[in-house]
From TrEMBL:
Claim: Transcription is one of the keywords in the record: yes
Location of the Response regulatory domain: 1-116
DNA-binding region of this protein: 123-222
Protein name per its UniProtKB record: Winged helix-turn-helix domain-containing protein
InterPro entries named in the record: CheY-like_superfamily (IPR011006), OmpR/PhoB-type_DNA-bd (IPR001867), Sig_transdc_resp-reg_C-effctor (IPR016032), Sig_transdc_resp-reg_receiver (IPR001789), WalR-like (IPR039420), WH-like_DNA-bd_sf (IPR036388)
Length: 222
């Protein structure tokens, strides 16, 4: 999930729509609502955030350092002002990157991936048994052959791979894929996506690589 902070509702709606086309969940806030949320949000909710995009907002209410007190997710400033002075000011405030608008959504996603890889030393892919699962939007591979998947199923597989070695709950998967404020989709849709994903993986691997336990959640095994 990507969190967008901007006072303009039309800007929020625009980014929500564009990210949705890429299969990426979002949550949007104005300055005051965001300040209240980021200081009180549950740790599990913050773990589902891939990045924070800070646009036109009250800089006093939206502090990159305050965000970093709660989470290590990248903080990126979206700037309408193409001046060196403004860019330097934004970097001094503690953001990880400054992107000048207009910018394509895919460039934003590429920058987020680059920052996360650099800061967290994430690999471009995770290998689990015969599976190679990429973290940059490419189709996963099994024994070197691409496995085409719908966007939601691919994102679930990426999320399970990113959390290799520990279980994640249905709620955590839902928050990461759909966003914590999506009231139009039922959380049980995760079970449907995972069921379809398991069938495809089982056909290719000969076994089910998604271990699930009731009340405990899901874990990817090799």
């Amino acid at each position: 999930m990507i969190v967008i902070v901007d006072e303009r509702e039309l800007v929020q709606e625009g980014y929500n729509s564009l990210f949705d086309r890429e299969g990426v969940a979002t949550a949007s806030f104005g300055s005051d609502a965001f300040g209240e949320w980021v200081t009180s949000a549950a740790e599990e909710d913050l773990k589902s955030v891939r990045a924070f995009l800070i646009g036109d907002c009250d800089k006093a209410a939206v502090s990159p350092r305050q965000i970093r007190d709660r989470t290590g997710a990248p903080v990126i400033a979206l700037s309408d002002h193409h001046s060196l002075e403004n860019t330097l000011m934004l970097f001094e405030s503690g953001v990880d990157d400054v992107i000048r608008k207009p910018v394509h959504i895919r460039e934003i996603l590429a920058r987020i991936t680059a920052i996360r890889r650099r800061v967290q030393e994430e690999q471009q892919f995770t290998e689990i048994g015969a599976m190679r699962i990429f973290m940059d939007g490419r189709e996963p591979e099994i024994d070197g052959e691409p496995l085409p998947l719908p966007r939601r199923e691919r994102r679930i597989l990426e999320y399970l791979a990113a959390n290799r070695g520990r279980r994640v709950t249905k709620t955590q998967v839902f928050n990461a894929i759909y966003g914590i404020f999506d009231d139009e989709v039922e959380e049980n849709v995760v079970e449907s996506h995972i069921s379809k994903l398991r069938k495809k993986l089982r056909e290719k691997l000969g076994f089910d690589p998604i271990d699930s336990k009731r009340f405990l959640g899901y874990r990817l095994v090799g």
